[in-house]
Structure prediction request, 583 residues.
Amino acid sequence: MSAAPKHAPTMAQMSLAERVAPYAPILLVVGLVIAGFVAIPATSSWLTLTVSGLAMGMMIFIMASGLTLVFGLMDVINFGHGAFVSVGAFVGVSFLLLLEHMTGAPNLLWNLTALMVTIVGAMAATGLMGYAFERVIVKPVYGHHLKQILVTMGGLIVVEQLIIVLWGPEEIYITRPEALKGAITFAGAALEKYRLVAVGIGLVVFLAMRYTLRRTKIGLIVRAGVENGEMVQALGYNLRMVFIGVFVAGSALAGLGGVLWGLYQEVITAHMGNQTMILVFIVVIIGGLGSVEGCFIGALMVGLLQNYVAFLEPKAALISNIALMVAILMWRPMGMIPVVKAK
Amino acid sequence: MSDPILKLEGVFTNIAQYHILQGVELTVPRGEVTMLLGRNGVGKTTTLRTIIGHWRAHQGSVTFDGQDITKLPTPAIARAGIGFVPEDMGIFADLTVEENMILAAVSGAIDEARLQWLFTVFPALETFWKKDAGTLSGGQKQMLSIARAMIEERALYLIDEPTKGLAPAIITTMARAIKELKDQGASILLVEQNFAVAKALGDSANVMDDGRMAWSGQMSELTQDAELQERLMGLSMEAH
Prediction:
């Protein structure tokens, strides 16, 4: 006689493929790094490109993370997100110029203090601007995607023109703080100091966001709101207030991204935010709308791929990220870690 | 009769060009289980969604505990003391069972004694406390959905088809949970297609047809009158 079946509730046994599936996106990043190692002849070149790719990815992540939450939480398509990147960069430059005596001194502590003041100033300015942008431009067009695209693009153009009015139409060249210039040599590879700092800042931002989203009640509300905003409201939470907070935080992060990107490129223009939006949207889409983890992994893949391909086949670098997006969407049409369900 | 906990007067609700509710009149007495019955598509779910504020009444009024909540936003309605269990359960699949419950404790930390009571009603929740809610079975998700509404005391619970598609053993669990809730003094407005459950739980009944209330009365009147059932719902409860 066979044994009686268990009546206690049990979880269905998952296959190996099902257990590996959640880790597939991060394994793709590891696979990309290994592929780069195999394809690039010199290890030192590979190491330099990997650090450069990670730095670029971290900066794109910082710019994109707010956008993905804004879309996931309130179904708002903000084509004006690039405005915060540009404003962040310009406000940052203004702070760097004010603190020139600190950034020009060959003292790491002074340099980092000046950088932190610059970052805080830029984030405060773009956070405030985000609040005004949400109240004036986004609020009237909730629930209307076409209007959101038109109005937020209009907002972007207005902000770009205001930047030109305030800071002038010319490109502004930035000098990095003295201690962040140059490179260190590791395993025969030249690693730019600034890129290492950018990787560090990106990691801190990611871990802070992850902690907030996973370990705090406000994080739970945001995650639940991305998945089913209607139900969060039915529990008694004012999601509109949460959304404003997320919009402000996302705008401030875009401002931080603008400062870092400006220092990375060492030149800023009023249109720089708009130009980075192509990469930002690619990252948001392949990561999965509303997913911070997906956004992080997508940004790393975009940064690494662009650097590897630019080294191996410069002409193909232009299309490499579009090709990556196509490949990811063919594999997972909702992005690597989809959070927002089809609406 | 004491003041009803909930009263809908002449409620009209439109969804796009569709006029779904067309003058709904509904009274939910305090401390009772009020059944909302009717065939598919007559407006039962829309009635609940209008009460909780997901859809706005274009005309008429919704009064809860003496307060006009017709124009209030959903969070304010919920915080006034209304728990909602939607037809699709509305669980957060990417959150764990624990996180779902933490989120449902709107006023602060989870009341440990109440949680232990919920574990006795729905033991599966304790078993899968740390698991993602999306990995639960349909019945377990429904248990979570109801437990989430019950984690804090509410004056009124709106529950939409809690037994839909569930196995008989789980239906029994659901019915017991709703009865325990009622025994604690809560008022419940329950949409239910399972007439055996409706018969067992309902104190009063309201039958909808074509966006209006076609009949209101005691559940016992409806269960005893096969002709009335046939006329209102096109079938007899005896068949169930």
About this structure: The longest helix of chain B spans residues 168-183. Chain B has one domain: 6-89+153-239.
